[in-house]
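Researcher: Here's my situation. A collaborator sent me these components and asked whether they could plausibly form a single complex. I don't have experimental data yet, so a predicted model of the whole assembly would be a useful starting point for our discussion.
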Amino acid sequence: MNRRGLAVLMRTRIRPSSAAHSTELSLFSPTSEADKMTTNPEANNKPSEPSKQISANGGDPDSLHKFSAQVSAQRGFELAREAMHSAISMNKTEVLDSILREFSEGYFGLSMEDRCKLLLVLAKDYDLNRNQVRELMNQYLGLQLPIDETGTEDEGMLSTFYRMERNLRHALRPKYDVLFERLNTHPGGLKFLSVLRADLLSIIEEDNIPSLRALDSYLKEKLVTWLSPATLELHCITWDDPASLLEKIVAYEAVHPISSLIDLKRRLGVGRRCFGYLHPAIPGEPLIFIEVALMKNVGQTIQEVLWDDPPIPECEASCALFYSISSTQPGLSGINLGKFLIKRVIELVKREMPQICTFATLSPIPGFMKWLLSKLAYQSKLAEAESLDMSCFYKDSAGSAFRENLLTAEEERAILDAAGESTSGKNGMEVLLNLLKSPNHDWTKSDRLLPALKPILMRLCARYLLQEKKRGKALDPVANFHLQNGAVVERLNWMADRSEKGLSQSGGIMVNYVYKLDSIEQNVQSYFSTGHINAAEDLHRVIQQT
Amino acid sequence: MNRRGLAVLMRTRIRPSSAAHSTELSLFSPTSEADKMTTNPEANNKPSEPSKQISANGGDPDSLHKFSAQVSAQRGFELAREAMHSAISMNKTEVLDSILREFSEGYFGLSMEDRCKLLLVLAKDYDLNRNQVRELMNQYLGLQLPIDETGTEDEGMLSTFYRMERNLRHALRPKYDVLFERLNTHPGGLKFLSVLRADLLSIIEEDNIPSLRALDSYLKEKLVTWLSPATLELHCITWDDPASLLEKIVAYEAVHPISSLIDLKRRLGVGRRCFGYLHPAIPGEPLIFIEVALMKNVGQTIQEVLWDDPPIPECEASCALFYSISSTQPGLSGINLGKFLIKRVIELVKREMPQICTFATLSPIPGFMKWLLSKLAYQSKLAEAESLDMSCFYKDSAGSAFRENLLTAEEERAILDAAGESTSGKNGMEVLLNLLKSPNHDWTKSDRLLPALKPILMRLCARYLLQEKKRGKALDPVANFHLQNGAVVERLNWMADRSEKGLSQSGGIMVNYVYKLDSIEQNVQSYFSTGHINAAEDLHRVIQQT
């Protein structure tokens, strides 16, 4: 049964709407607002609409309601702020639960604007005490280093140093550290902190406020130490898991959206595996998960993985193909859990199915088209300027050094041939640009264009993956992720993802990265030390054609 | 069946020997030395005995073996030290697993003496860089505070402060911080750190070296933040749990030793519960566990809980009696997990068995006899000195202010009467002291002495629990623990623990603390703020008799 047939059969897509989230595990209490807010912060960006009831005093009900909504929003902000203050300043022996609950519920009830205001209060009013820090530093600098004339350390003096250094460490902790620590102790608190950081990140993206950046970087350091991979439980997610957990998989699958219940069931069924990393303090919700297909050979298209072929008997599989990895917590951005997850999944699969000897991915190339289109557009502009002799466009004659023909002479000819009449006067890059930008990816439907473009796009894609860098690392984020973990770029696959997303991102090309167990460590080291991208020989050869 | 019958029946006590630990979950690999070392560090205090093989060169085999053992111990130390250095100094992108494994296995292979040496190296050679700290401080102090004349903060200046404060925080971290963080990320690393801290504590107890104290206090702060109670799983331990876990319960039960398999089975059977706190990074080993008996009324003797009465049907129970709480990790000393455990167990029992309305303990009073005997001995000495007119014993006449008759006139008479002829010329306190110190607790076997001593010891015990303080807190550690958690001292129970340990610690007296759900918070606050010990009315009255 093909994808279309299934879609007709099912009619219902199960991507959750905000209502679907009401089954989520609550943060603090089963009836709290926290529920709906957790994954849909934007839903609460505006104060809730006032009910349409007419007020008794006969005034303009609309403006009255608007006013009362404002007042209640203001009140909500004040309450959340007070709860936050109590949560930070109360004595550690006082019982915290109710106050922390009050704070987090209050926070979830705020609009995004008020959340931002509150986070600013947190960052500014609960920063460290600079006067105290300076005083301690002056005392510290007044001490003689605890080394006597003979160069040996004086144990007695050292005691003083240890004590003062401890005090300095504590004084250099912003006051909001206490809030983070207390929330971490609290059931649901870690999840709340992840939501709070997600908010922070989205605010910073809009407006890069230094105090919020400092708050974020402090919180991130805390989250890194709390989310030790040794604490995470590797869970094999199956059709027998609770719907509330499976719903999360559907909601957060970021690479190849799950289209129906049957799709989900296949991904958890025979010949397939789905592994999630669960943290004990965030129950029922994997922080990150990976989907695996057990195959005879390294899969070449996402269609065969997800739809076309019935799975083979597992005992015949010799390859574990990782075809999707998704993280569920925007608030944990920058904390690389995927690395540990892949490592542990490989270990587990190897133990349970010793006949599996190849560990590979079938991965998207999310940045390829964006890179290619911008390269082509830039070159077209340069060419245009040159032909019009717009010397102002170049500062000096060296400007032409930026000109680069992305195509070989042969490729240029092939494109112009395939594109036919409408190309007169244009060069190959312009034609390619127009073809790739054509609506509905028309080029993929043409029997003339498709074979002509294939070798060109495949070569350029290899160049993109193997040579385009950013700060010494692969430009493509997925490539960088797998190379960091020690994989090798093994093979490019043409028309491997014909979905709208696949065509837009990478012209339908996908890539296999391979994890070769005996060379992972070596690859990691060479990638980090020299930036060398490990790839199969023939990929290097493809590039050298030019 | 009584205790004696069982003992005869069983013959085998299952308190584990070092061999029993070979079933433990390994720290890093199933065959590593780590296994046996984990809970038996002392077993390796001396280098392993050389094999009795005779050397080929005909020299004195014994001294040769001693020499080669020394060489191999020295080599072991160097290897562990090198592995430690690599674990700290390697680049974070290098793969750590093998090095961390090497370090921990090397550490476990060391004698206690070499461990101490290695920990000193860690504390001293991997401390913070004081010159760097001073330099950063000087730079920091050179900055103008980021507040302009109008008293508002300059955001641009703040950025600099945030950056420098972050650098200072990092510079103030000793270099060994990296080792702790890396171990925490590593499977088995948290357990290893707990063993390492246990070693540290035992070394410090012998020799209070400032650098080791600083190392310990740093590590403790780390462990506190990693062992968040929200991360701990509350597990109801049953007879269906793996033997490797049950073995831990037997090994670590610190209050009422488990005498046989049948004893263990009863403690996990009908009418009983055992709850443990498990950390995901230390699998198969509760960090702390609590034993609960479901009873009609608050139990008065440990005999009835452990042996005498068959359990009642659980539906008839109205009281959950906590009769034992034990922590398994000496390396987590000072980290109060018990408080959270009791709270969560109460919540869980309330939810699952709503008919239970009383939550109480049956607790030992570990410090009572020690306190009483030292009080009595001191008073006897004072009395002796006075009777001999050893004026040098008092610095001045005010010395007599230390004299206190712990007994009322009536109690004095009762004791002298009961003790009979041998008491001539002695006062009541001297007689009491001698009786309590008599071998085999003979006083408990005398029909004359027992009833005479009962009211006296019960009154003094109430005084000990309710009035004797240390830094404003209850002197008795178990009392302090439950009072901190919000319990009330409810009732003293005479001859509630007739075991050797019970008689030595508290003359057989046990105490019920009660957790009254609606006053827990209030009790915590009053205990912490004023040191007030909440107790039942009649206990206060007993004391006021004097």
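Model: Some features of this prediction you could bring to your collaborator: Chain A touches chain B through 58 residues (CB under 8 Å). The radius of gyration of chain A is 29 Å.
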